[in-house]
Task: structure prediction
Amino acid sequence: MSNTVVLVSLSSLLLACTTRSAEPTNPLTVPVFSQSANGAAHARSANFGTPLSSREEVMPTGVVNSSSAVGNAIFDLSPDGSQLGYQLIVANIENVFQAHIHSAPSGVNGGIVVWLYPSTAVGAGPTGGGRIDGVIAEGTITAANLVGSLTGQPLSSLINLLSTGGAYVNVHTNDGVAPTNTGPGDFPGGEIRGQVEHRGH
Result:
């Protein structure tokens, strides 16, 4: 091959490389709620939400929560205020067997007012289930799902708690082996937690 052919080939390659468009650097994002319960597509921001971490937990005396698990709880109120859609998302966690909305301010443990995992029906899942990641629960909360101190009250009572910082989401873990509170994956009183906050709309 002659030097001229090599030079022309290299010039063509260089020109092709310099005319390529830049690769995108921003991450792709999609709306969390892409469909309503009846399947109608929509994309609107959550009304309430909270990040979840071990730092928010109020542990029993002498128990150290060294969990690196994280999560997010997202709530979306229907236009008429009668339904609250939710998604519960977790990562780097094991043996989740229940999760709830609790009624109490930050730094205080409170009673359950809504079940979130395994569903809004009252009842824990199996213990010792192993690692779980992603969206682990989603559904719709109505007044009929309120329990504890909110039993028999309208959904607006829950919305008031969420709006004023009076509620938190707690994800509980249990490896199914005695004793409890032995480390990540075995905190039945709660491994990750977050105080729900109002996010507009």
Remarks:
- The chain has one domain: 45-198.
- The chain is about 10% helix and 30% strand.
